[in-house]
Design brief:
alpha+beta; single chain; disordered N terminus; 4-stranded antiparallel beta sheet; 6-stranded antiparallel beta sheet; 7 helices; Chemotaxis protein chec
Length: about 325
Amino acid sequence: MTSPAAGPAPRAAAPAPPAPAGSGSRSRRGEPRTYDFRRPTKLSREHVRVLQIAQEAFARQATTVLTTLLRAGARMELVGIEQFSYDDYVVTLPSPAFIATFTIEPLAGKGLLAYPLDMAMATVDHMLGGSGAAEQPNRPMTGMESTVHNHLLARLLDEFSASFAPITDVQPDLHSIEYNPQLAQAAAGSDTVMVASFTMSVGRREGEATLVLPFASFASALNNAASPQLSESALRKRQRAAEALAERLNLVPVDVSVRFAPLTVSSEDLLSLAVGDVLLLRHPRDSPLEVTTNDVTFAYAIASNHRRRLAAAIVPTPIAVKDTA
């Protein structure tokens, strides 16, 4: 039985509106991300540390370039570095977007720099003397706009090269401009890429920029750059450990054989051997015997004796005499 004084049932809370399609937002801190066990993580903490130093230097220099060329307040700041397959990265980009691919000679593969199209259009507006505050067209750049903006890209690629100099020498060169992420072929879909995310602002506009590099091309350079710089005490410890290891290796017992020169016989002769048969060794009478271990000849000797035991006296290595025609 219900009480007449009871109020109306509370209404269910309205569901939160869905995220706008094509926003390009990527799962980050606090949000789960799918882990593909067929593509294990290749980017170690040491790699991230080395990349972070280079990418932060690039962000600082890019901020200076943007501020100088656009004559407006501009900023780039590193957010994080992640590993993706190229396909997984491409689906995070909005369409359209401004996407510049560039070569990374002498390394193989291509790099990619992407940021919002309206911000790219605003940079052209600034470089032509405008304020960049007006509504920007949502279309590919014209030939003149591309020429103006490519000057900015060339400066950014120069700063990228300088920032990565401590890791490896790269000479980036602009390859192509795309506006549809599906047409930006910077890598194969399954290739592992390193994605550095930046917050980017030009005037009052803010957005996200990403710098993508192929992991396979930089793997060797990253491993070398990630080698720890040891202190003098640590170096001395390593030297003592190497000396102790060498000393112990010198005490390891090794089987050594003294033998005549090997002889090749047919399987028929080998199976027909019987007691009393004589097997010609074909070893020259004046040639020394071979001293071997694990089938490797490392010295020569002649038969001798020591007290009541047979012995082998080491002799100089015989000089091979070449046959003359």
